[in-house]
Amino acid sequence: MCSAMAIPIRRLPYPVLRSVFKQMDPESLVNFIRTNKSSTKLLPGMSASVSVYYNSKDPYIVVTTASGIQSELPIGDYRKLTKVFKWIELDCLKIVVSDRFKCLRLLSLLKHCKFTSCNYLIIEPVEEGFVLRKQALKDIMKQLRTINQMIIEVSMEELPENIDTSLAVTVTNGDLLEDHEIMFIDAEEILVDSSRIGDTGANLIIKNWMAHGENLRYLELRLADEWKMFEDDHLGMEWLLFDLEFQIRGEGRFETKHLGNVLNFEEGFDIERDDGKKATIVRTPDTLYFMVWD
């Protein structure tokens, strides 16, 4: 009867060793460098993407190698990742916030791994009704200078203003945000799924684009019911189109680049800026659609 014989990994030829390392999962690679201080010298240059799931109880990291091999690691292993992988990118950062939310540990991770951008930032509450203060996320936004898509599922009285242009921002609960807060979102595409804004506020958002809007390409804003609107706001087309020069247009079709939405409309209102940029306003009973044409 033959028994398996263990082969010391350090005695393998380097081309074979390189191939072995690239087929190992991230957890095994982290454990390997713990065996000896010189272990990192054997590792080839490898890359990985990281998703961070951060909460007050059990935060963790999901690491995916270039070969598609994945491991879930405790958040404390982030310092080992920079020794294993030469190139690391932050794919998704999901933050679950609560009254006990503290971001010091998360900031240490972002700074140590030198993350300055991520593809997706998701912020959600641990329970419904929790309101997140802007200050709680200020330092995180300062570290992550570029965020491709942001999904905000927590109520916020104010949005962080120090974010570079995002491709898309989704605000699931915008009931505490006023029209000027929506104007501060510097993104190509914005979806606000719930709000206390009516046609008066929507009119001000459109006028802000007319005056100096640079990046906005698409806005989908769920308008408030009359009973929950902010004071001095109103519903009605006369308020939406107030003091705007427009032309009525027929049916059309608009596709978003990042949110994955396609809007087919039967009628709209075309407006044009002094620089020649054109946009179309479409109003349904409960939603404003604002589309800027390329």
What distinguishing features does this structure have?
294 residues, alpha/beta, 13-stranded mixed beta sheet, two-stranded parallel ribbon, 8 helices, 22% helix, F-box domain-containing protein, F-box_dom
Q: Provide mean pLDDT, rounded.
A: 86
List the uncertain runs. Answer: none
Q: What is the structural class?
A: alpha/beta
Domain tally: 1
Distance between the termini: 73 Å
Organism: Caenorhabditis remanei
Protein name: F-box domain-containing protein
Domain F-box: 6-57
Molecular structure report:
This protein has about 290 residues and is an alpha/beta fold. It has one domain (about 45-290). About 20% of the residues lie in helices and about 30% in strands. The protein contains eight helices and 17 strands. The strands form three sheets. Strands 3-2-1-4-5-7-9-10-11-17-16-15-12 form a 13-stranded mixed sheet. Strands 6-8 form a two-stranded parallel sheet. The radius of gyration is 25 Å and the shape is elongated. It starts with 13 loop residues before the first helix and ends with a strand.
Describe the structure in brief:
The chain is of the alpha/beta class and 294 residues long. The chain has one domain. The chain has helices at residues 14-22, 26-33, 78-84, 104-112, 135-143, 179-183, 199-212, 237-240, and strands at residues 47-54, 60-65, 70-74, 87-97, 117-125, 131-132, 146-152, 155-156, 166-171, 187-192, 218-222, 247-249, 252-255, 262-265, 268-272, 278-283, 287-292.
